[in-house]
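Throughout this chapter, every protein is written as a compact record of paired, labelled lines. The reader may check this reading against the record printed directly beneath this paragraph:
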Amino acid sequence: MKIIQSLFIVLLTCILSACTADPNASQLYKQEKPLEAEIILPEPFEVTNAATIKVNLTQDGEKVETPDYVHFEIWKRDGTVKYEMTEAHNDGNGQFSLTNSFESEGLYYVQVHASNEGSIIMPTKQFIVGHLSESDKQALQADAPVTGEHSGGHH
């Protein structure tokens, strides 16, 4: 009985030791090339004046000319202003833009929603229109997280 048990253990050890991972196994899977965005904001933003926000998209070091989609979403930190998500204008050469005017001063956020070849990104950048209120200044000093009714939903 001990011989059968020992033989079983040796056989099981041989079988399990034969199942080693291929060190190059990761190369067998699709290697993602992440989409990257550089948000460009004009300075200064003034109330009622139209301003253009731009984003440069690259992927694997190349400019992205025709992504699946590029949308801009803008909201005010205190939640009192939220603009609808808007499709970006394709300026060519991997650059996309949105021209918008702002009716009130304060701390705003712009989030770019972009997708290309299965890579989806949603970078966010803050900006100031006109002058800051005391609560906006305090939020900046405290490095407060984004508040308001922002939704991170998909399209």
Remarks:
- The helical segments are 2-17, 134-142.
